[in-house]
Predict the structure.
Amino acid sequence: MLLKPFHASPLAFFACDPNQSRGRRFFEAAAPTRSEYQRDRDRIVHSSAFRRLVYKTQVFLNHEGDLFRTRLTHSLEVAQLARSIARSLNLNEDLVEAIALAHDLGHTPFGHAGQDALNECLKRHDPTSAGFEHNLQSLRVVDSLEERYPTYNGLNLTFETREGILKHCSRRNARQIEAREPGGVAQRFVNQHDTEPLWLQPSLEAQLANLADEIAYNAHDIDDGVRSGLLVLEQLQEVALFKQFSSEALAQHPTLKGRRLLFEAIRLMLSAQVYDVMEATRQALDKAVPLDVQAVRKQSPLVCFTPSMAAQSADLKKFLLHNLYRHPHVLEKMQQAQKMVRDLFGAYMADPALMPQAHADRFDGNDTPHSVGAKPERVVADYIAGMTDRFASKEYERLKLGIVM
Ligand code: MG
C-alpha cells in the first residue's frame, strides 16, 4: 500500500478551498491570519454548545464513570481520525476538523434516548410538527441559538461547514430551510427524489467527517462496553473484524491479555480502517476524476470503505446494537432518561416561567432583536436540547418531578 508522507500537502483540486468558499450568511471581511475554515473551527471551539458536550452522553450516562466517552471526547476522536485521512488525501484539514467538532452540537442530553423523547413530545404536542432531528438541531445551534456576536444570531459559519453539519434532513424540514435560504444547505435534500438531481452529496470533507464518526464510535464503544462490564473480551470474538486484529495482536505479542490486548486490537482495527478508507477513496477518486467540488457533489459518495471493510464494519455495528446499545442496563437508564425529558417538556410547557428569563421571553414571543421566531414548543425543545445530562437531572430534582436514579 502506498501511503503519502506525513506533512501538510497542497490541496487537491477536488478539495474545498477556503478562498473559493460560498461564503457566510452575513458578510464579514476576511481574517488577517486565518483561513475561513480555521475561523469556523475556532468559533465552534469557543461556543458554549461545544463546552456542553463534555457533560452529554455518548452511550453511558455522565455520572456512570469518568473514563467513558462523552460527546466531547467522541467529537475530538472523530476530528483526529478525519484530519489524518484528510491530510493523506490532500483534502482540507481545517474544514474536516470544523465539521467533526460541530457534528454533535445539536445532541440532546442522554444521547439518542433524549432525542427520541423530545421528538415524541413535539409530535404529541402538535401532530403536524416536524419533530426533532439532531443534525438539524446542530445546524440550528450554529445558525441561530448561539448568541455571541453583536449583529447576528449564531456563529455565521461558512456554507461548506454548515453543509457538512446537515448530514441528514427530512424532505419536509429541508423545504422549510430552502424557503428561507434558496439554493442553500438543504437543497440537496429537497432534490433527492428528482430524476436529475442537481446535487446529492456534500463535499469530500463532509463525507469524510461522516465516515470518521462511524469509525470512531464503533471502536470506542467496544472500549467503553468492556470497561463497563457489559461486554466481555471473549464475546467480541464473534465479530470477525475484532477477532482478526486481536489474533494479530496476540501473534505479535503472545503474552498480551486483558485491557492491553483490548487496546492493541482496537488500535490495529482503527489503523486498518483508516488505511482502508484512504485506499478505497483514492481509487474512487481516480475512477471518478471529479474536477472540482461541484463535480464531487454530483457523484455518488466517493469517501468510502472497500466493500469487504464496509461489510465488516456493518457487522460490528450490528453486534454493538444487539449487545451494547440494547443491553438491559443501557435500556433501563435510557427509559429513565426519556421520562425525565418528557416530564421536563411538560413542566415548561405548562409554566414557561420555570425556564430562565431569556427562554421564557422567547416562549411568549418577546424575543431579542435577532428573533429566531420559534413556536413555544420549539423554544422548550431548544432549551431542553441544550441541557447537559447533569443539568437536566438537577432541573428534574429542582422542579420536584421525581428522584433521579
Ligand atoms: Mg457522532
